[in-house]
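User: Reviewer 2 asked us to show a designed sequence for the structure in our supplementary figure. I'm pasting the structure tokens here. Could you produce the per-position amino acids so we can include them in the response letter?
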């Protein structure tokens, strides 16, 4: 089992966002927690979101690039590029 250490304080929330994959597909998602370093996103169960993504949300001030660090059936964890 992998244990991820956190370098930034998380803020729990429910915020609508869009997620754009490397292939250009856009999905609606929900930001469930957010920190300076990354986010936990609820995503559609039929998607595969490995690699790099763009997250588009007002709370982020527009669009932020991120790398997917893990994925389960309903969620992904991402690290923002400038935070790695």
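Assistant: Here is a per-position design you can include in the supplement:
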């Amino acid at each position: 089992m992998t244990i991820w250490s956190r370098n930034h304080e998380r803020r729990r929330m429910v915020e609508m966002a869009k997620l754009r994959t490397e292939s250009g597909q856009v999905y609606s998602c929900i930001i469930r927690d957010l920190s300076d370093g990354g986010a936990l996103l609820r995503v559609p169960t039929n998607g595969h979101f490995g690699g790099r993504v763009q997250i588009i949300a007002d709370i982020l001030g527009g669009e932020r690039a991120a790398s997917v660090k893990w994925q389960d059936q309903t969620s992904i964890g991402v690290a923002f590029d400038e935070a790695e």
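For the response letter, you might also mention the following. The chain is about 0% helix and 55% strand. The longest strand covers residues 11-21.
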